[in-house]
Amino acid sequence: MTAPETVEDSAETVPLTYRQVLGSRNVPQLLLAACLSRLAGSMLLFAIVLYVITEFHSVSMAGLSGFFLTLPGFLVSPVAGAVLDRLGAVRAVALDTMSSAVFISGIALLALGGVLTKPVLFVLLALYSLTSPLTAGGIRTLFPGFVPEAAYDKANALDLSTFSAIDVVGPLLAGAIFAAIGPNPTLFTIAGMYVLAWFSLTLLRGGPAGAPSAPRPHLLRSAWEGITYLFRNPTLRGLAVSYALYQAAAGMLIVIVPVAVADRLDGGRPVDRYVGLMWAITGLAGAVGGLIAGKVLRAGVERRYMVAATLVCAVAIFPVSALGSLVTLGIGLMLVGLAEGVVNVSLLSLRQRRTEPDRLGRIMTVSISVNLIGFPIGTALGGALATYSVTVALATAALMAGGSAAAGRLLIPRGA
């Protein structure tokens, strides 16, 4: 009697289902680690603002806390990518999850001891930020190592769909826990989630767990090679331009949506509640869009689907979202979410398939940072235009999305 054919063996000829991908070796453990670490990070972004306002009674300091929580990681992402390739993805992600738990619980312990000062808080948040690119790039480096290439799209769809759902759940859960048990217990809860993510990684068996054994260049040279490789690779270069424009549109919507909701509500109705509902709709639609993309995408068609979904996003922003009612705004954002799921799965699969495996860690971390450059530009532009006219702001965001589609069509090669 012959041994049963494994999922990995059969996947080259038979498309895998989501159930088969979830049943692949190490995928459940990796997905659990990804969900726990991302949920902890999403909760922290929201909770740290409440924490600083409660502990230090300063809104300006809360804003600086968000700055230190994010910017250092963005600046060191090329070096983090080189570290990722050097240590191996599993070890790098484990290092980040454990160090995150230490830094976040350290804030709470110092506060309970009455010795937490503003400079110490900022230092601990910056240290947390410095290792965060290891998980951001490492998780997406590991998935291709645990599934066949034919299953990249479905694995990425599961990864990105859970990410979209966490974007909805994270702030809600953080607010509820903060109100129920207080600031320092909330930080201990978040730190505990990072510990559980680390434990889930220890359950991985086999696969790309170790660092390469071949001689490696100096760390800074490896980081520089990651940057130059990205800009010399036509696909990655085209993705950087296209997705940066797409993120500029997304950044504009972050600012425009609250203004649009306020404009369309009569006085007395709570704006925050409706804004939260709009983004919940968008996040859930993004999860659905990602799962749909995982079923229809395959090697060779990612570019086509990415361009088409970006065009749908442009139309959803303008004219659909600009038609003048909360209903049409909600419909427009739902379409934006569905399209975003397809765009993100297409981008991730294309990047994985057209990057040399031994460079994937560096490229993933550098590429994530470069692709997100458009987001802060979009938020600044959205704020300036929304104060003048919501309709003009939405039209400009749609123009950015249309430019993203054009860049994808013109700059990303058809083949590898």
From TrEMBL:
Transmembrane segments: 30-53, 59-81, 93-114, 120-139, 187-204, 240-262, 274-293, 305-323, 329-350, 362-386, 392-412
Ranges where the Major facilitator superfamily (MFS) profile domain occurs: 235-416
The protein's name: MFS transporter
Source organism: Streptomyces gibsoniae
Location relative to the cell: Cell membrane
Coiled coil stretches, renumbered: none
Organism lineage: Bacteria, Bacillati, Actinomycetota, Actinomycetes, Kitasatosporales
Top-level lineage group: Bacteria
PROSITE patterns according to UniProt: MFS (PS50850)
Pfam families (UniProt xref): MFS_1 (PF07690)
InterPro entries linked to this entry: MFS, MFS_dom, MFS_trans_sf
